Amino acid sequence: MAEQLAQHLSNVAIFSYLSQTDLQVIEKYMFFNTINPGEFVFKEGEKGDYVCFVIHGTLEVIKINSNDQPVVLTHLNKGASIGEMALIDRLTRSASVRASVPTGLVVLTRKGFEMILRLHPEIGINILKGVASLLSLNLRKTSEQLAQFMPTLG
Q1: What is d(CA 142, CA 124) in angstroms, rounded to the nearest whole number?
Q2: What CA–CA distance (Å, rounded) separates 4 from 80?
Q3: At CB < 8 A and 24+ separation, what contacts does 29-33 make?
Q4: Interhelix angle for 121-147 vs 110-119, to 10°?
Q5: Are 98 and 41 in contact (CB under 8 A)?
Q6: Domain locations in the chain?
């Protein structure tokens, strides 16, 4: 099972800076969770203290718009991560995440991540590099989408 989990984690962008050996180290701080269709992984506004990695299935990211209506922002599939900001800040969840189909997740809690940082600092730093890269990419995509709604200059 260990090789299998490490193999799944190698497909997750946040872990792109880690070797197979590093993945085998961090899997000891993670656990599996199965989410049924319609179940929420977490809801917007809840306290965030874990990140999840999609092993199989599909999740939908839902945000409440200015009219207090839920809208689906995106769908996440195998290899995606959700809740990575929870490893960095202590703010509430910025969106809700719900399973569309039976979905398998690997979960890393903030406590588990802090143990990795303390006991395996080089691995922790490389995870932070992966989180920073992912957040940067997401910010770039958001900026591109926002620009399409902005008035042109001149």
Answers
A1: 27
A2: 17
A3: 29/108, 29/109, 29/112, 29/113, 29/115, 29/116, 30/5, 30/106, 30/107, 30/108, 30/112, 31/106, 31/107, 32/104, 32/105, 32/106, 32/107, 33/104, 33/105, 33/106, 33/107
A4: 130
A5: yes
A6: 2-132
Neighbours of 112 (CB within 10 A): 18
Residue 2 confidence (pLDDT) above 80: no
Domain 2-132 sits in CATH at 2.60.120.10
Tokens standing for residue 56:
């199989």
In single-letter form, the type of residue at position 116 comes to I
Write down the pTM of the prediction: 0.85
Nearest to 38 by CA among 94, 97, 88, 89: 97
Residue 1 has pLDDT above 60, yes or no: no
Helix (H, G, I), strand (E, B) or coil at 62: strand
* Cα→Cα distances 128→16, 21, 88, 117, 121, Å: 11, 17, 9, 10, 10
> In 3-state terms, what secondary structure has residue 100?
coil
d(C-alpha 43, C-alpha 57), whole Å: 19
